[in-house]
Every structure is written in C-alpha cells, then in structure tokens.
Amino acid sequence: xxxxxxxxxxxxxxxxxxxxxxxxxxxxxxxxxxxxxxxxxxxxxxxxxxxxxxxxxxxxxxxxxxxxxxxxxxxxxxxxxxxxxxxxxxxxxxxxxxxxxxxxxxxxxxxxxxxxxxxxxxxxxxxxxxxxxxxxxxxxxxxxxxxxxxxxxxxxxxxxxxxxxxxxxxxxxxxxxxxxxxxxxxxxxxxxxxxxxxxxxxxxxxxxxxxxxxxxxxxxxxxxxxxxxxxxxxxxxxxxxxxxxxxxxxxxxxxxxxxxxxxxxxxxxxxxxxxxxxxxxxxxxxxxxxxxxxxxxxxxxxxxxxxxxxxxxxxxxxxxxxxxxxxxxxxxxxxxxxxxxxxxxxxxxxxxxxxxxxxxxxxxxxxxxxxxxxxxxxxxxxxxxxxxxxxxxxxxxxxxxxxxxxxxxxxxxxxxxxxxxxxxxxxxxxxxxxxxxxxxxxxxxxxxxxxxxxxxxxxxxxxxxxxxxxxxxxxxxxxxxxxxxxxxxxxxxxxxxxxxxxxxxxxxxxxxxxxxxxxxxxxxxxxxxxxxxxxxxxxxxxxxxxxxxxxxxxxxxxxxxxxxxxxxxxxxxxxxxxxxxxxxxxxxxxxxxxxxxxxxxxxxxxxxxxxxxxxxxxxxxxxxxxxxxxxxxxxxxxxxxxxxxxxxxxxxxxxxxxxxxxxxxxxxxxxxxxxxxxxxxxxxxxxxxxxxxxxxxxxxxxxxxxxxxxxxxxxxxxxxxxxxxxxxxxx
Length: 731
Ligand code: ADP
Ligand code: ZN
Ligand code: ZN
Prior knowledge:
Layout: E1 2-8, E2 19-23, E3 34-39, E4 42-53, H1 58-65, E5 74-75, H2 84-97, H3 101-108, E6 127-133, H4 143-155, E7 158-159, H5 166-174, E8 178-184, H6 203-214, E9 219-224, H7 230-243, E10 247-251, H8 259-269, E11 273-276, H9 282-293, E12 299-302, E13 314-319, H10 337-348, E14 351-356, H11 361-368, E15 373-377, E16 388-393, E17 400-401, E18 404-408, H12 409-421, E19 424-428, E20 437-440, E21 457-459, E22 464-466, E23 473-475, E24 488-491, H13 495-505, E25 511-514, H14 524-533, E26 539-542, E27 555-560, H15 574-586, E28 597-602, H16 608-615, H17 618-631, E29 639-647, H18 650-668, E30 672-678, E31 684-685, E32 688-697, H19 700-715, E33 721-726
Parallel strand pairs: 9-14, 9-15, 10-12, 10-13, 11-12, 13-14, 16-28, 19-26, 19-27, 25-26, 27-28
Antiparallel strand pairs: 1-2, 1-4, 3-4, 3-5, 6-7, 6-8, 17-18, 20-24, 21-22, 22-23, 29-32, 29-33, 30-32, 31-32
Helix pairs in contact: 2-3, 2-10, 4-5, 6-7, 15-16, 16-17, 18-19
This protein binds adenosine-5'-diphosphate and zinc ion (2 copies).
The site of one zinc ion has 7 residues, from loops.
C-alpha cells in the first residue's frame, strides 16, 4: 500500500495544500505524476507531490488518524511531467508570485499534459507510418512490385501514404519484404524556407556582439532604435550558442504578429527550431513540447509561456520587445516572463538578453544602475534617417478637414500622395470597432456590459455591441431599452470607422484592417501582414498590433489618428504606453531606402509622451518620466503588489477589504504604503464584486511574510476570495 500526497487541480489558495490518498495498484507512480481522484464527490485531476510506502492496511491507518483515506481512481502518466529543473523553477515562481503551485504547473504545461481533468480529452501523440525494407528479394514479383520495392530501398524509408499503390504495398507487406515503422508525427507544418546566408554585420552590430560575448554579466539590455538591426544580433548570438553546444530560448510577445521573425529563424536554423505559442492547436503544442523534451530542438521560439519550455543546456534566453505587456500574464499566477527568464537564467547559468527600442522604465533604470549590462544600437541600418514627424493639434480648427472630422488636412493630403506614388501607409487607432459607446439621445441611457459594467462598443460589420473586456455580445437594438426612443447615438471611433472613412475619401484605396477581431480566425493575422508586405493593399489600418516589430519596406507614412487614447487611462503607466506606441508606430515608417513621414493627431500636442514620442527621444522621455515616478512613488522607485478581494456579496467584499487594509497597516507599519480599498476600473467580474488594495514597497523580503499570512487568513474565510498580483500592470 502506498500513501500519495497530491495537489488538486483547482487553483485557489484555499486548496493549495496536499491531500492524501491511498494507492494499491501496480502502476508506476511518483512525484510529478498526474492521477485521478474523487474530491468532494467529483472526479478531479491531482498532481503527485510525494509517495510513501506503508505496511498498514487502510483500516489501521483510519484507526490511527481518525479519518478515512480514499483510494486513487487511476494513475495517468508513465513518467513525471517535469524534470527537476522545471520543478524547482515552478517552486520559485510560485514562491515569488505567491501563487497556488498548481496554477504555475497549469501555466507551464501544454493542454494535453496539464494537471487538469480536461487534459484527458486533449490530443495525444499522432504517428506517421513509414515503410522500409525488411528482407530484400525480387523473386516472383511483378514489375510494379519490383519498382516500389526498389524505390523503398533507394529512399531507405518512405511515408506509407505517399506510396501510390496501396495494394502493392499490402502485397509486399504480406510477403514480409517490407515493414512498417511508426514515428511520432509533427502536426505543426513549418514552411520549408531555404537556408539563408547571413548578411555581413555592421560595425555597430559587431561591437554589440563582441561586448556581449566578452562580458560575464548575466542580464543584458539591448536598446536599439527601430530598424537598427537587432534581429541580426539575436541570430548571430544564437548561432554562437549552438556552436558551443548550448540551446537558446527566444521569446517574442505575440509570435503571430511577427511571422517574419519565425521565417528568419527557420531560414537560419531549420529543423532545430521548435515553436510554442498561443495560436497553435493543442495537438501542435503537444508535439512541439515533446520534440523539445526529447532534445530534438535547440532553439525554441515562442510567446510568454515558452519560458517554461523543457529545453536543456540553455546558454541564452532572449526576450525581444521586452517592454510589451503581454509578457505579463494577467491571470493567476500573474507571472512576468522577464522575471521568470532571469530566474531560469540563474538556474542554468545562462545569459539573458532583453531587447527593445523603447525599454520598459524598470529595465532601463536597472541598466542605468548597472544591474543589467546596457548595449546600444543608436543608428538605423544604412544610416537611414528616422522619419520626419509632425504633430497636428486637433483642437485647432484650422487643421481640420471640413469633409472629415477624423483626418486633418495634413493627414488627408499625405494619404493622397501615398496613393499617387504607389507607396504604402499605416493608420493607427488604438481602438477596435466602429464607435466606442452607444447611448440614447433622449434619456442618456448608456449601453453597458451586464457582466463588467463597462461601455459596449459598436461593431458595424456584424451590427453587434461587444464588450472589449469579456466576451459578451448582443445584437445592436433599434430602440432604447429605457425609453423606447429610436435615436441612439454612437460616439467615438475605432478601426472599423477609420476604414470606412478611408473608403469614403479615397474610393480607389485598397485597405486591410488588423485588430484583435482578426484573431478570431486562426492564422488570419500572419496572412494580413503577408499580404500587406506583398502590396495587395495601400493602407493598413489597425490597433497597436500593427506597431509591433514589423518590417514593411514600402511604408513611408504612418498616421496616428488619435494619439490621446490611453493617456486618460487611470494608470501610472499611461504615459509610458503612449510614448512606446508612438515611437514604435513611427518607427514603421521609412525602413528601407525611402525616407519616411509620420503624422500624429492629438488634442494634447504638448504632452511630453507625445512630444518625446514624435522626436523618438527615448532618453528625454526617460528623464522626464523617471521624475514623475519618483514624485508619485511608483515603479521603478517603488515596487507594487495588488490584492483583489472578490465575492458574491458586495457588503462582505467591502468589509473584508477594509479588514485586510487594517491588517496590512498594522503588520507592515512604515515598510509599505497601503492604498485602498479602491473600486477597480472593471468593478465586476461575472457575478463577483471586486475591490483592490495597492501596496507600494521598496523591499519585497520585508513584506512577503505578511502577505503570505494574509493569504492564509483569507483562504480560510468563506464568501470571499483573494488574488495577489506581484508587480501588477494595470494601476
Ligand atoms: P530592428 O529589429 O532593430 O527594428 P531589424 O532587425 O528589423 O531592426 O532590421 C532592419 C532591417 O535591416 C531589416 O530589413 C534587416 O534585414 C536589415 N539588416 C539588419 N542587419 C543588416 C546587415 N548587417 N546588413 C544588411 N541589412 C541588415
Ligand atoms: Zn432612452
Ligand atoms: Zn464584459
């Protein structure tokens, strides 16, 4: 008999402790195996933490402890899910982020291997059948049979389904001249790009590579302006690691947005590359994961969770566009791939390279203080000039085009020049949909999401009102539900409206639209990007998605239709976000031999995020913004942690949040500043009411114990739930 300690699949603090079960079966079982158990009358998945043998019977055990242990239902795996490295990484992540351990495992593993009951239905291994020679003899064979036998001999091994004549194959099989080999199939189709010879490095690129290679530091920040050739630096550094026999983890924020990046890597490294990102099907993820675990991939390219890829002998971890917020997971365990990459780098003694044209303030400040080693690329390849930018004040009516309230005279003029000269333009509006809100002219009723409470956005294409926070949708009504009036007013505008406006003003223009509505269809994004690169359209209209890392050689105009969106968001990061967005978007213009232009339309023409963004002046912005952060005690001067307390009864949530604030003030004294309770921007999450507390602190070790105690305390309370977010983004 064995006693098995497990974690169950529910990721909550209340259940984040081992439960014991008995096992009498014959299957192999140990730490890291998944098992099925009955828990509170439900069959759930469990993750084994430890196994002990005992000579006692279940009755004896019951007598000793006073309660009865259940038997496991079944053992799922034949070997542990994670190797020791990954297991200890999971521990570190769970300790740092104060997250239920099971939630970290669930984030680490692909759906088919996740410790969740749903994984049982997820895809398993698929095989390909190959044919090879078993015993070569042409005796008594027909010409057809000999032909195929010779073909198999010549090829060594050949895919069964690719051999034309199944009946001949069956014959050869039945005579035992050939045999079937089963091999694991890779369901992800990777385009077969030809190998490409690398370009000659520029002096600047060479200098950065030498500096990196000679240094013993562990974390590096490569700050290189848009178009300065960072990708080639990454590729060369990867090559060097492979030569040393090491492997490389290469992270990009959203790989589906940068199909070019994948192409560069495949051209350089071919089948050594494995790919892990959210657009893959569960089957593809499973295959890629196994390919990595078998040691067949030496480079893994992927999004956030690829930081957990089961790669061994890692020599280098690269995070491209390190400032992008999708590196932070916005659900439990709320980890940030940058912090995890540094943890993993330490464990493997691997170097970590963060790259960006607009580094996050946190990273740049660390580089300034010598915590990260700063590397810089300050010139564009071929010394190409940065685009000439113009800020247009929308509040000045002289700038406004009478025929269009959306485009200024300058932007309209530049767009027409683009169309005449057959170049390309990008129009950015950081909001999808047609209009931002719909309200009643008669009574003022505003259409809101019934689950989150925020205003619904009108989408004209399908005549729907959609919530941009959750997945709520409803058909656009004809009349006001309050007063019955027919006069419903649509205010604000998004990508859909801009596209309509372009068509109205320039009927001949060919447009493409890229926003997160496009992600609803698999592989739609790369195909839009590809087709814009191939010049099937003149103007690409999109949200911040189009600002990221693309290289469109014929784009010579970038128009930011309304730069202010985001500035009014209640977040200490709003200026940083707007600055990054402008800099990155403007950087898409004029990347090959043609000089680019950019037009920035705004109601706040003198806001520093906009003026520094227009000038592409990172240093200037950094100085100014650091001053602001210092004044307000925000990162990088202070660290943040946020607590969200949720429950079905608003009163209970409010009382419990006040209690938590008192507790924290009491325990932490002057070690932290406690703000709250506050009602978050999105105050409801389905049927739960939410309140938050923000903690500002300088030394995590001084507050960690208190937070753990508070979590334990709330884990035992009924009616409320507590979530902790270390280094939160949305404040
Ligand atoms: P970044 O990522 O810094 O914005 P990219 O890596 O996209 O810049 O490089 C910009 C352009 O310069 C790309 O088209 C790239 O192919 C080209 N490029 C990069 N390095 C070299 C080089 N050493 N010689 C010639 N062209 C280069
Ligand atoms: Zn009304
Ligand atoms: Zn909603």
